[in-house]
From TrEMBL:
Domain MaoC-like: 9-111
One Pfam family it belongs to: MaoC_dehydratas
PANTHER family in the record: BETA-METHYLMALYL-COA DEHYDRATASE, MONOAMINE OXIDASE-RELATED
Name of this protein: Dehydratase
Length: 150
């Protein structure tokens, strides 16, 4: 079991799997969850500043989370997520992009209770050219191995 104190900071780890964006999965996700015309219609997408069909941001977030679960790790003492900060969409995800996730634990701070700590992890979705597609910082509450004492 990996507790809050055990987490190694500033050591990037990458997903073992990749996700290939295709016209079909871009349209399929967007049709159900974000039917913005440039996500579902090639003619509308051609008129957009991107110039081609591109994935919805929520699709890319979903891919990031899914791929992050393929990063090898022992079971963690995570309790719950507290939220995401600094969400940025750096570039569009388009058909043909092969995506992978990178997660780097960047900060630890005490939690609201002595037996808890907060871990901040930077999530990045990268394409086949090592360009960042999206990034965000996830805040997770974890159990401490040894509770703080007064």
């Amino acid at each position: 079991m990996i507790y809050w104190e055990d987490v190694v900071l500033d050591e990037p780890r990458e997903s073992s799997e990749r996700y290939l964006l295709t016209v079909e999965n871009i349209k399929g996700f967007a049709t159900e969850w974000d039917p913005f015309p440039p996500h579902v219609d090639e003619a509308a997408a051609a008129k957009s500043p991107i110039g081609q069909l591109f994935a919805a941001g929520v699709h890319l977030l979903s891919v990031t989370i899914r791929l992050s679960h393929t990063i090898s790790t022992d079971e963690t003492a995570s309790i719950a997520g507290r939220g995401w900060d600094n969400l940025r969409f750096h570039r569009p995800g388009v058909a043909g992009d092969e995506l992978r996730a990178r997660v780097t634990h960047v900060e630890r701070s005490p939690g609201s209770r002595p037996e808890r700590g907060v871990l901040v992890s930077r999530f990045e979705l990268l394409n086949q050219r090592d360009e960042r597609v999206i990034s965000f910082d996830a805040n997770v509450v974890m159990l401490r191995r040894e509770p703080l004492t007064a």
